[in-house]
């Protein structure tokens, strides 16, 4: 799909066709949404679809997860007129932080951190990332928010796979993603 084309009818998820499969190997995510972000209407519709279930909910802040979650998270925060918090991979913040170890989608052990002065008890945080594959990264972000006394208002991602971790998140938190139910099997991580 060309980056200027907008379909005559725009059903939920029409912009998913803009994504490209991984051609670089197992150390990369299996599907890349970054081309979708280059399409002005695709990005707007993706953010609108992600936020649709949360309109009217108590959300005080939006947090995006390093690094591609920063794009959708910042767009969601601007749309909701809320502040944006970056949840970073360890070593990138020069302020007081709290850290949480996790395993990412490739099984690599990593550490995520967040500044300690942004989340106060009772703050309702919408967590945003581009993709939830195994759920390890999102669970680390959830743990950081809750450890600082915040509440998770919801989880939003382009896709939340039907993995064990994805199901764990969907059973416990209000979630939103852009993949229509009939297409979900095509977006789940190939085994």
Automatic annotation (TrEMBL):
SUPFAM superfamilies: PRTase-like. GO terms for biological process: purine ribonucleoside salvage. InterPro entries: Adenine_PRTase (IPR050120), PRTase-like (IPR029057), PRTase_dom (IPR000836). Keywords: Cytoplasm, Glycosyltransferase, Purine salvage, Transferase. CDD domains: PRTases_typeI. Residues 57-178 form the Phosphoribosyltransferase domain. One of its GO terms (molecular function) is adenine phosphoribosyltransferase activity. It comes from the Eukaryota. Its main location: cytoplasm. It is found in: Cytoplasm. It is an enzyme of class 2 (transferase). The keyword Glycosyltransferase applies. One of its GO terms (cellular component) is cytoplasm. It catalyses: AMP + diphosphate = 5-phospho-alpha-D-ribose 1-diphosphate + adenine. Pathway: Purine metabolism; AMP biosynthesis via salvage pathway; AMP from adenine: step 1/1. Its EC number is 2.4.2.7. Homodimer. Belongs to the purine/pyrimidine phosphoribosyltransferase family. This is adenine phosphoribosyltransferase. The lineage of its organism: Eukaryota, Metazoa, Chordata, Craniata, Vertebrata.
């Amino acid at each position: 799909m060309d980056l200027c084309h907008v379909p005559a009818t725009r059903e939920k998820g029409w912009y998913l066709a803009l994504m490209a499969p991984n051609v670089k190997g197992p150390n990369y995510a299996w599907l890349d949404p970054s081309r979708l972000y280059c399409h002005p209407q695709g990005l707007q519709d993706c953010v609108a679809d992600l936020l649709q279930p949360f309109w009217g909910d108590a959300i005080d802040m939006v947090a995006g997860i390093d690094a591609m979650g920063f794009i959708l998270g910042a767009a969601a925060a601007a749309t909701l007129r809320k502040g944006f918090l970056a949840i970073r991979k360890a070593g990138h913040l020069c302020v007081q932080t709290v850290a949480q170890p996790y395993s990412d989608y490739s099984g690599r052990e990593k550490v995520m951190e967040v500044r300690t002065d942004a989340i106060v008890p009772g703050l309702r945080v919408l967590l945003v990332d581009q993709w939830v594959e195994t759920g390890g990264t999102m669970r680390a972000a959830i743990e950081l928010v809750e450890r600082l006394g915040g509440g998770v208002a919801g989880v939003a991602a382009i896709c939340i796979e039907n993995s064990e971790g994805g199901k764990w998140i969907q059973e416990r938190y209000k979630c939103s993603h852009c993949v229509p139910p009939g297409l979900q099997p095509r977006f789940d991580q190939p085994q």
